[in-house]
Amino acid sequence: MARSVFFSFLVLSFIQVQAQPGNTVIRGYICDTAGIPLSLVNIGIRDMPYGTYSGEDGYYILSLPADNNKHLLVFSFVGYKDYETSFTASPDTLVINAELKTEVTRLEDVIISEYMQREAPTLKSISMEDIRLIPSVSGSLERMLVSLPGVNSGNELSNQYRVRGGNYDENLVYVNDIEIYHPVMIKTGQQEGLSLLNPDLISSLRFSAGGFNASYGDRMSSVLDIRYRDPEEKKASVKAGLLINSFHLEGKGNNERFSYLAGARYKTNQLLLQTLDTKGNYKPSFYDLQSLLSYQLSDKAYLSLMATYNSNTYSFIPASRRSTFGNINEAYQLYVLYDGSEADSYKSFNLALALNLESGKNFNNRFIAHYYNSAEEEKYDIRGSYALNLLDKNLGSENFGDSIINAGVGSWLNHARNILRFNIFTLNYKGRWEYGSNIISYGFRYNHETGTDRIREWEKIDSAGYSIPYSDNQLMLNRVVINDTSLSTNKFDLYLIDNYTFTLSGQQFIFTGGARLSYWSFSNELLFSPRVSLSWSPPSNNARFYIAGGVYYQPPFYREMRYPSGRVNSDIRSQKSIHTVLGANYDFFIGLTPLRLTGEIYYKNLENIIPYKYDNVRIIYSAQNIASGFVRGIDLRLNGEFVKEAESWISVSIMDARHDIENDGYGYFPAPSDSRFSVNIFFQDYFPSNPSYRAHVNLHYSTGIPVSPPYSERYDSYRRMPSYRRVDIGFTRLIKSKYDGEDHPGMFSFFKEIIAGFEIFNLLDIRNTISYNWLTAVNNLSGETRQYAVPNYLTGRSFNFKFMISF
User: Fold this and answer.
1) pLDDT of 110
2) Any bridge partners for residue 727, and if so which?
């Protein structure tokens, strides 16, 4: 009953739209002198605490009290001259469009990225202001992406995500044009630690779930393009909490040529792990250091150096576990006593030197040298002794819920000493030439990868006195992986893109055509990837339509190349995906509330696929190009300020992803990432009489993905996990905010923002399943060998306090 009341209240709160008579509503369209829309333009009212940003298609809307006085509306954007116009705040809807003129005073990284955005209608700008308060146990930026349509995870402890039927390894991530890599050996979400993306340092981010342009390559599913800030003044912030603590500092030197941006974070999820079924001594420790140093050599030359160091260590001494699983007709309880320990580590280092050059009025060039080093270790010796009992589920029985039959006893012993080292060196060039209504972008990249892998891993299973598999004359191990591998590969990439803007019958069109040419020395493959997009806006300027598509190859990284036995397949080929995306944005009003509806229909044809299975967040590949498939679906998102200056949204995704193993005779089966339906609701609200008290609710539901024993040979034999359901809620007190427009005398005058918060994770305490332990036991009564799927549950209800200040 309480749960139903809660959901009813939440739904009613979400759909309620209150008309606000006596308000002035300003809406309009912002573009440059060529008529190309500008996103993320800052729109504010001089000497008043009201403002907003333009969307990716250049439209904006702003509401303020109607006082019938004259005010000044200011449009500002990096690289463009400010535009100001006056208006009278009458109780009406005003249309004010703006055309911004270029003003390049300093060649910054963002200049190239702005033009890249115009070439990719599927690349969506996301405001950090909107997502920074989403309640999240990991605090990572990637977890916040799960609130977008087409993005899924099913694991609140992990930074990894799936997009439109793809897996974790199919997503591109860039920071300032530098590709970001992820750990390879991680098996569970609690081992992952900190993502390399620091939200405290980010100025803008853009995300595409498919159909992105030819400047991005080598992955089949998505791209996340992030820009770190170029500081304009001295700032700092401190965040403290039970899970994550961070500090950041930025500013400029006295000569205005030198700027610095630095951040440090520390995280421990020990409190969360105590809610898991497996009890023991968890000791996770994760920290990182990041910096971006920049120097303006001249009016046309700009040098920057980015460095990051990331250290994630995880140690665990398990003690015991008690898990109940099954259904109303057949329920079991597993009890395990452990002996041993586990120690894992992942450490990485990034160093990137970038030089921006402006050669002439319409030419921009960017040169990047990047070095990445990683060291991963996985060491464990864990013995588990278990008893598996059948529970009494007869409601009228005196023994209801108690064990009535012992279904099996036994033990297992897992051992690993695995070490992986990787070094990647990259040279990258990106250029842009503006000519009339054309923007031509081009680039080149050389990538050299070396790696060494040492695997020593085995598993012994003993059930009812019998070792599985059984032998009369020797001790047999259930699984043994021993291998040493060294790799050295080279990749070359070229791309060329032409972006052309024109007007036809009063409608503005933007056409982008381009191609990417890649060569991979390991397989001796030469890959050609054409990609195109076309977007247009009707004369009403309240909608935008687009179509995008192309060919996307994914040369295997080390994990895809490795057989389950540990050997590397030297005949592996690149996977291939052909995207087609149809999309539209539509802006409208309900009363005075501005809303935007975004929708995309997509189809992906898959070739040369490497089949895989999930084991928690670990992906076990077959290392063979023996499958084909398709993904089709629709993504919808409705967003708007249902409450003033507090954006909320709902995202809905429907998808069908299927694979087919060649010549196996079984036909198509659901892909391992096939979550058919998902919905995410993020809603913000505050007390009208005191907006400093706010609530942020994040609800997520997604249907389960197919799963099967990780080392079985059949891919079409599967069971679906239960649906993933989760509600997180956060409460914040804006002690001082840039929106309140109040003066704070005394000690508070030193700070720009002070926020205190309290969060409840997994509010309804739902036990979500992340994976299964496939327990093989010999039945004590029948003597038959049977395999049981014992669910591994994610975290239960937990709490967090946090405190944030900026100055």
Assistant:
1) 34
2) 699
- Joined tokens for residue 787: 């395999």
Report residue 697 as tokens.
């609710």
The number of C-alpha atoms within 13 Å of 277 and in the hemisphere containing its C-beta is: 22
> Cα dist. 250→239, 431, 739 in Å?
15, 28, 22
Q: What is the pLDDT of residue 779?
A: 62
Quick: pLDDT tens for 538-575: 876 678 899 999 999 999 988 899 998 889 999 999 99
- The contacts of residue 176 (CB under 8 Å, 6+ apart) are 109, 226, 227, 228, 292, 304, 306, 352, 354
Q: Outline where DSSP puts E strands in 108-177.
A: 124-126, 151-152, 162-163, 171-175
Tokens of 281: 């001594």
Distance CA 294, CA 256 (A): 11
CA distance 764 to 7: 11
CA distances from 211 to 250, 318, 531 (A): 35, 45, 8
pLDDT at 711: 76
Residue 136's pLDDT band, with cuts at 50, 70 and 90, is confident
What lies within 8 Å, CB to CB, of 12 at 6+ separation is none
Q: How confident is the model at residue 188 (pLDDT cuts 50, 70, 90)?
A: confident
Per the structure block, which two tokens stand in for 695? 């609530």
Domains recognised in the chain with CATH numbers:
22-103 (2.60.40.1120), 114-398+407-519+573-806 (2.40.170.20)
Chain centre to alpha carbon of residue 121: 19
Q: Are 612 and 620 in contact (CB under 8 A)?
A: yes
CB 127 within 8 A of CB 53: yes
C-alpha 484/C-alpha 659 separation (Å) is: 31
Q: Which residues contact 478 (CB under 8 A, 6 or more apart)?
A: 412, 459, 460, 461, 468, 469, 776
To which H or E segment does residue 595 belong?
strand 593-609
User: Tokens 């043994």 appear where?
Assistant: 480
* Contact assessment for residue 153 and residue 274, using Cβ atoms and an 8 Å cutoff: no
Looking at residues 331-359, what average pLDDT do you find? 93
Half-sphere exposure of 603 (CA within 13 A, CB side): 3
Q: What percentage of the chain exceeds 70 in pLDDT?
A: 89
What number of other Cβ atoms are within 10 A of residue 8's Cβ?
10
**Do the Cβ atoms of 223 and 550 come closer than 8 Å?**
no
Cβ 694 vs Cβ 22: under 8 Å: no
CA distance 428 to 438: 23
| 129 sits in which H/E element | helix 128-131
How far from each other are the two terminal CA atoms of the chain, in whole angstroms? 46
Core vs surface per residue 569-585: b (16+ CB within 10 A) or e:
beebbbbbbbbbbbbbb
Answer whether residue 603 shows pLDDT above 90: yes
CA dihedral 769, 703, 716, 795 (to 10 degrees): -10
Contact status, residue 412 vs residue 461, Cβ threshold 8 Å: yes
pLDDT in tens, 246-303: 999 999 988 888 999 999 999 998 888 989 999 999 999 999 999 999 999 988 888 9
CA atoms within 13 A on the CB side of 533: 29
427 closest CA partner among 352, 348, 514: 352
CB contact at 8 A, 220 and 198: no
User: Which strand (E) or helix (H) includes residue 293?
Assistant: strand 278-298
pTM of the model: 0.84
What per-residue confidence (pLDDT) applies to 760? 94
Asked if 719 and 706 count as a contact pair (C-beta separation under 8 A), the reply is: yes
Rounded to an integer, the average pLDDT of 756-761 is: 93
Q: pLDDT tens for residues 114-133?
A: 333 444 688 888 877 767 77
